[in-house]
Amino acid sequence: MLSMTPKEITERKALRINPAKTCQPIGAMYAALGIHSCLPHSHGSQGCYAYHRSHLTRHFREPVMASTSSFTEGASVFGGAPNLRQALKNIFQIYDPDVVAVHTTCLSETIGDDLPSIIKKAKDDGIIPDGKWVIHTNTPSYVGSHVTGFSNMVRGIVDYFSQSMGETKDRINVIPGYVEPSDMREIKRMTEEMGVKSLVFPDTSDVLDTPQTAQYAMYPKGGVTIETLCSTGDSKATLALGPFASEQAAKAMETKCNVPFQVLDLPIGVSATDRFVQAIMDVTGKEVPESMEYERGRLMDIMTDMQHHLLNKEVAVFGDPDHLISLCEFLINMGMRPKYVITGTPGKRFDLRIKGILKDWAPNAIVKSDADIFYLHQLIKNDPVDLIIGNTYGKYVAHAEDIPIVRFGFPILDRVGHSYFPTVGYRGGMYLLTNIANTILERKDRDDPDEFFELIM
Amino acid sequence: MSDKRIMNAPAIALDDFVEGVVDVYPAKAAKKRRKHIVVRDPAEKQRIEANERTIPGIISQRGCCYAGCKGVVIGPIGDMVHIVHGPVGCSYYSWLSRRNLFRPRADGQNYMQYCFTTDMEEKDIIFGGEKKLKAAIQEAYDIFKPKAISVLATCPVGLIGDDINSVSKEMSEKLGIQIIPFSCEGYKGVSQSAGHHIANNNLFKFVIGQDDIEQKEHTINILGEYNTGGDTWEIERVLNRCGINVLSVFTGDGSYSEMRQSHMADVNLLMCHRSVNYIADMMETKFGIPWIKVNFIGIKSMAKSLKKIARFYDDPKLTERVEKVIEEEVAKAEEGIARYIPRLKGKTVILFVGGSRAHHYQGLFRDLGMVPIVAGYEFAHRDDYEGREVLPDIKVIADNRNIEDLTVERDPERYNPRKDDETLKRLKEEEVIDTYHGMWEDMGRGTMAIDDVSHKELGMLIKKLKPDMVCSGIKDKYVIEKFGVPSKQLHNYDYSGPFAGFRGAVNFAKDLDMLIHNPVWKLTTPPWKKKPVLKADLTVST
Description:
The structure holds 2 protein chains of 2 kinds.
Chain A: E1 16-17, H1 24-32, E2 38-43, H2 46-60, E3 67-68, H3 73-78, H4 81-94, E4 99-104, H5 106-111, H6 115-124, E5 133-137, H7 146-161, E6 172-175, H8 181-193, E7 198-200, H9 226-231, E8 237-241, H10 243-257, E9 261-264, H11 270-284, H12 290-305, H13 307-310, E10 314-319, H14 321-333, E11 337-343, H15 348-358, E12 366-368, H16 373-382, E13 387-390, H17 394-401, E14 405-407, H18 425-447
Parallel strand pairs in A: 2-3, 2-4, 4-5, 6-7, 6-8, 8-9, 10-11, 10-13, 11-12, 13-14
Chain B: H1 14-22, H2 27-34, E1 37-39, H3 65-74, E2 81-85, H4 88-93, E3 116-117, H5 122-127, H6 130-144, E4 148-153, H7 155-160, H8 164-175, E5 178-182, H9 192-206, E6 219-225, H10 231-242, E7 245-251, H11 256-260, E8 267-270, H12 273-287, E9 291-293, H13 299-313, H14 316-338, H15 341-344, E10 348-352, H16 357-367, E11 371-376, H17 382-386, H18 421-429, E12 448-450, H19 455-465, E13 469-472, H20 474-482, E14 487-489, H21 501-516, H22 527-530
């Protein structure tokens, strides 16, 4: 397993090996699926949308619908406008979505297709039926990562839809970040539980976790409606969860509709969730219901109940910046020690933020953005850890080095549950912690010699 | 062959159905799509349109040229480093996402679990990526000391004019190893198919015929077999039992070192006609190696293919051994599938996959008593449907004009006809070598072929024809299952396999039985929605 990886770490400037990120368009496609009756559209060659659909399908085990401009060599030379126009004409007649959410690719970005003018012309020429929307965002694959693509599409949603009618309504916007349908569902539930009216967007719940009823629907019931999206400009505040995925859209909302915003960490783990709940209280003046304090209490209870198994365990974590920021804090809350923290997404503020979180409890941790899983593997080869937390690609390192792994983040291609059970909020914390604790205990059972094999742990 | 065809389903007037399917499109698109759908009538000489542009906005299964080159043909070669020159995504999505199993050889070289890319950034797009590519090749060499490196281009590389050929040449001279460039930018051609061709060309130019070894008796190559779920190994097991040695496989469990020796084989066995027929043709011209079209999927097909190989060798001892192996293996496999046949018999299947499997699997379904009613390819050409007889009639479309057709000549030293002219002529006439009749020959009257099927068409087929099972790939799988119809992925086998060969047939039968008879399909509707609504008045009447 990964037997060619040498222990010796050499500096690499050009070669990326086993990336801990992927390209922008997949994130844009995922975000667009959080709009009701929306068909994401990839303005590029067919391979892009085929890969993105395949990968999202593997992660969610759900139909993932999208279309493409099917660039050929001619379009790449002469521009993709005719392809997009033809695509829009076909899409509205054949698939009849309410919204087509176009994102670019490295191909269309490199040739410089001007989407706003192509879309405007299509509208003027009657290719876009009345009452239907074509929105867009630029997602050059050679900038940032899939998280950037998500962020760009959410910003595109704000740019196109959000309007201010001038009357501030008693409700808040929540941009949930690049999280699972289960997480978006949980965020809605939490605000509801607090008696707060919230507009959560994008929202892939009931889109990418649809029930099996033997009745296929191309546009499932879920996703945020256009009406809701348009009304986001009248909310009293926006809570942007995860600076990397959500801040950009919240800022755009403020500029466009004068809605103030707060950028928070993803509410993963007890402290980040506390801050989310506190922010809702501050903005809305609502109190935390007893039921939610009980939820919190139950999470605290597991944390104290399991502490003897968790304390001082050294952990390697990799994945997306917003997830890792909150995860590291959660691990520290539990007395665990993040040792290697790796993201593929570029961004120095990630390094600074994580180092700040780890400074008292894990000051020697190696923290690196714009890095890869090959590097993480080499670090582990030199000095191992007790546990790896990351996406499915980490399982090769885990297997090679015989270290247990908890799957967390995007993508998870080999296990089930992530799209159904949240990791955000207090309940999500319980699920995540249960996973972590049980994985450690499972490993202990596997490793213990007979005479130390214990009934009660 | 069972006769239960769509024609016999009383509710379906087939031609009306086809018109209904294409009517969902705008007129221009409908006219084009109509030519990709054929209701089979073997009495007629029929034509299907294929290898044409997918109409923008129509959701199809297809991917790109890069996916065909790197994802399909080059990726499975496990003892080479494959560097994808481009932004991170293309390399990332083709990293372990196909199930091309690989076992390292004695030299221990195994890069199958790795993903290498230049991860181009904005500055590389603006100022050019050649410098970064050079540095990446150097770093790969310094860390791994591989035998060879491939460089695969993605869309922006061609657009900004990075010259991967000269970079590869320069670095190859510097490092003393082969560095093979593949200009397989995603926008080339109309599907993965262009990428297959580009991969074939450069494997032929750079790899095949590079390492002369002693020619061993009864030695073959397998072309177009990708070792999904271990298929190659099951095929090898049977061939080895027959006394046939596998020299190299293109490219399942593929070894660069073995491919360099592949010109020393007696004959090429061609599995996937679409993805590797170019190499088969070129090796025949250059080295004098004929090819046999085989189909190792299904018990009868496997046995038939083995017999073809025996006829090629025409060696009584080998023939006897092959016959014996067939007898034993067929008996065992038939015993293995017997218990499933009553449970699968008569079940109808729709299959849309690849450039060969939609044909190959029809035989296996028939072994199990099942009935393929509709089949189609994702990226095939007309010859894969209609047979190679139509090759002279196929015009190269504009989109494919830039995909090079290599001019191949006899190798002055290595050309060595494997049989005398007369025998070759006879073998050809007897259709043992150099012959493929395409999917047509296995599709009877009243079945339907659909090329480059769309999402809309697939949905309509499922609703109208109510098949017992649909075989496709990951993008369709959960669509199909959300219709309440079980789906077996024939690209990645739903993480099962092997399905090739004799043992594979039994695995397949077992999987299908599980899938079709899974109790869960009966539970999708809650009980209260199944029963007629009882309007009994529960209040006590007075």
